Amino acid sequence: MTLTRRTALSLGASLPFAAALPQAAAAKAEMKGMDIAKSRRVELGEFEVTTLLAGTAARDEPQSIFGMNVSPEEFAKVSEDAFLPTDKVQFFFTPTLINTGSEVILFDTGLNADGITAAVEAAGYTTDQVDKVVITHMHGDHIGGLMGDAGETFKNASYIAGSVEHNHWAKADNDGFKSKVAPLSEKMTMIEDGATVASGITSVSAAGHTPGHMGYMIESNGAQLMLIADLANHPVWSLAKPDWEVRFDMDKAQAAKSRRKVLGMLAADRVPMVGYHMPFPAMGYVAAKDDGFEYVPMSYQMML
Ligand SMILES: [Zn+2]
Fold it and tell me: What DSSP assignment string belongs to the chain?
């Protein structure tokens, strides 16, 4: 039955309590605006893994960022098929905090010190509890929270970064590196592909987005999860279309190659992932589909 105004009225009239329904004007509460959870915690073996929403913002003209090498018609078709608007995109910035039981390790630090401090505290931790800060790559939205007006954000932490990445930005004339990373370089351990940063946590080289971009494989008691960082930055425009060019990928061909390789591995092994720019809580699975992949957001799998 189609519920027209007439049938709705007649249905209401037939209900004995219809007269007792409150008037719209009686229900007064202030409008609070959009809300979104700021953290999500799951267990992975003996570890606790918490994703932290350190920031989110809308941007215009998404095709100036994703799918730069396809026609506006193709971009529109793929977007509309996935129920996505083509004139706006919502960005998310999601560092991950892992408590291994013996150490608290933070992966990336968001855009600024205030944002990451608020996100860490909202999840029930303090910045002083962070033992290690791991930087996946040195774009501003990942290193921004390392230093603030008050100096070092994570006063008790040591730092870990890829040597290729560090060397690249140290040679470039980059303000972000100079203000956020250079003051901490003395305390920073440089690592290569396949390095163990803590028991069960291993670096996985995935270059292209930046020269030394790295993801991390997390494993505890046989359970696995991969932090893919900026390997793929949109659930449709990067996962379904791994060859679509992304403005922020410094080597676009290499980035696409890394996407296919790592996403293919996650799909084959059915390993869940956290993507730094995926819609919050940024956790999901990857399935092979057509000539690309399908992103399957996590629902309750990791609560069991
Ligand atoms: Zn990023």
Answer: ----HHHHHHHHHHSTTGGGSPPGGG-----------SEEEEEETTEEEEEE--EEEEEE-GGGTB-TTS-HHHHHHHHHHTT--SSEEEEEE--EEEE-SS-EEEE---SSHHHHHHHHHHTT--GGG--EEEES---HHHHTTSEETTEESSTT-EEEEEHHHHHHHHHS--HHIIIIIGGGGGGEEEE-TT-EEETTEEEEE--SSSTT-EEEEEEETTEEEEEEETS---TTTTTT-TTS-BTT-SSHHHHHHHHHHHHHHHHHHT--EEETTSSTT-EEEEEEETTEEEEEE--SGGG-
66 belongs to a structural domain: yes
- 150-200: pLDDT as tens digits: 999 999 999 999 999 999 999 999 999 999 999 999 999 999 999 999 999
Instruction: Output the CA 73–ligand 1 centroid distance in Å.
Output: 27
Distance 300 CA to ligand 1 centre (A): 26
> What's the pTM?
0.91
Q: Is residue 87 situated within a structural domain?
A: yes
Q: Is residue 286 part of a domain?
A: no
Determine the distance separating the centroid of ligand 1 and the alpha carbon of 80, expressed in angstroms: 25
Asked if residue 183 is part of any domain, the answer here is yes
How far does the centroid of ligand 1 lie from the alpha carbon of residue 34, in Å?
Answer: 23
